[in-house]
Design goal:
The structure is a homodimer. By secondary structure, chain A is α+β, with helices and mostly antiparallel strands. The first copy, chain A, has helices at 3-10, 15-23, 38-48, 68-74, 80-88, 105-108, 115-120, 123-147, 160-167, 198-201; strands at 60-65, 91-98, 151-155, 173-182, 202-204.
Chain lengths: 205, 205
């Protein structure tokens, strides 16, 4: 049975939604001039905020770069091979983790506000929890961008220390991914890359 | 304008799909006896495999614990507070990263097979890339479980070194999350926890 048939038989999510978020969506490498509105960006974040993080810590922080002035600050910090696509994107999101996320625990996890104290004097533990859960939230965010009918272009190729110094000098944030956002432009896709064979990454015990 | 209105106006994803994956889905804490089929599990992985990883490295490895024998090996390695829910779940997924993922680069990223050599003698770099991208894939997996109409119960509370020794003794895998999977049982949900106010984690430059 082909993968498409399996999905049809065993998933509840409708085929259009599967295509939009998972099977047909692609990482865009060029973007059109069509603007992305503030309301679209807010709808993306309102959707992405719901899936789970450990003890609801929600460590992700999002900076939307929307103006030419802010883009000019960002571009020199993007690796050269990625710069043209970032230049063409109407909006760029800097996704970062807040290493002081624990100060929000009494608000976000009122059933156990004392969990804040577990983290207070343990930066390594905060880094681990913020990185893991902020990365989960990064994936939710990428799929939420697609849910708005927009293409996401996630990029790991940037000067993270430089971005942190330029954008987060006064905050304990650490950038983890930069995501171009917009409608695809001319020749936006590379050829689709293969995935592993099922047997090479899944086992049943 | 309320969040729901914003979403209606500015998202392409249909409301049923939004509810299924993001807004109404909840982390389950009990599970019913209803079985989860091998075909459902395969459909979940076939959906989850498509969203992006850096240079398509796909470091996530999935072990589905489906038999009483395998469950008996797993349960002592789950922290006590999580054990009852894991016991009640018809299937449990152990999500792990493969620290030798770079050996697959020639297959997965044929446009630059030499990227394998960048990782070959640099374990720290492999750990960083596998952790980040395996965590992205973990989030895609959680949403794909929901896409099958099942509840996911992700748990960080387990003995990771113990699981790696018990299940991956002969492989360079490192467990990063355990996810209970099934239909919700009796009283499956805690009260929904709050999220941050928009202004507290999103900025527009």
């Amino acid at each position: 049975m082909a993968a498409a048939d399996l999905a049809t038989d065993h998933l509840v999510l409708d085929p259009a939604a599967r295509a939009l978020l998972f099977t047909e969506a692609r990482t865009a490498n060029t973007f059109s001039d069509e603007p992305v509105s503030r309301d679209q960006l807010r709808a993306i974040t309102e959707l992405a905020k719901w899936p789970p993080t450990s003890a609801n810590i929600n460590p992700l922080r999002i900076t939307f770069v929307t103006t030419p002035e802010a883009k000019a600050r960002l571009l020199p910090l993007i690796f050269e091979g990625n710069r043209a696509k970032t230049e063409s994107a109407p909006v760029v999101a800097i996704l970062a983790i807040d290493l002081d996320f624990h100060d929000r625990i009494p608000q976000l996890f009122p059933v156990r506000p004392e969990m804040r104290d577990l983290y207070k004097d343990d930066l390594a533990r905060r880094e681990q929890a913020a990185t893991f859960n902020g990365t989960l939230q990064t994936a939710y965010f990428i799929l939420a961008v697609r849910a708005a009918g927009l293409a996401a272009g996630p990029m790991a190729g940037f000067d993270a220390a430089g971005i942190d110094a330029e954008f987060f000098a006064d905050r304990p944030y650490r950038s983890i991914l930069v995501v171009n956002i917009g409608k695809p432009g001319k020749d936006p896709w590379f050829n689709r890359l293969p995935r592993l064979d099922h047997e090479d990454y899944v086992e049943y015990l």
